[in-house]
Amino acid sequence: MATLTKLPNIGPTLAKQLEAVAITSPEQLSTMGSKDAFAAIKKVNPHACIQLLYLLQGAIEDKPYTQLPTETREDLKQYFRSLA
C-alpha cells in the first residue's frame, strides 16, 4: 500500500480498494488503466462514483485529478455513463 499511496490522489482508503482487486503497484495501475481499474473496483463497491475514476486517472498521469484536461474528463464521464 505504501507504494500506491505515493501516487497523487491515492490515500490509504483508495489503496485498500485497489489492493482488494489485486492492484498493488503503480505499474499495475498504469498497465490496467483507470477505466479497467475502476470497473474492477465497481464490481466490489457498486457505490464507486465518477470522482474515483478521476482520482485513478490523475494518479496514472501523476497529477492532481483537478488538473486533468477537459477532454480526458469528458472521456471518463462518457465511460462512467456507459456503465450505468
TrEMBL record:
Signal peptide: none annotated. InterPro entries: TfoX-like, TfoX_C. This is TfoX domain protein. PANTHER family: PROTEIN SXY (PTHR36121). Residues 3-78 form the TfoX C-terminal domain. It comes from the Bacteria. Gene3D superfamilies: 5' to 3' exonuclease, C-terminal subdomain (1.10.150.20).
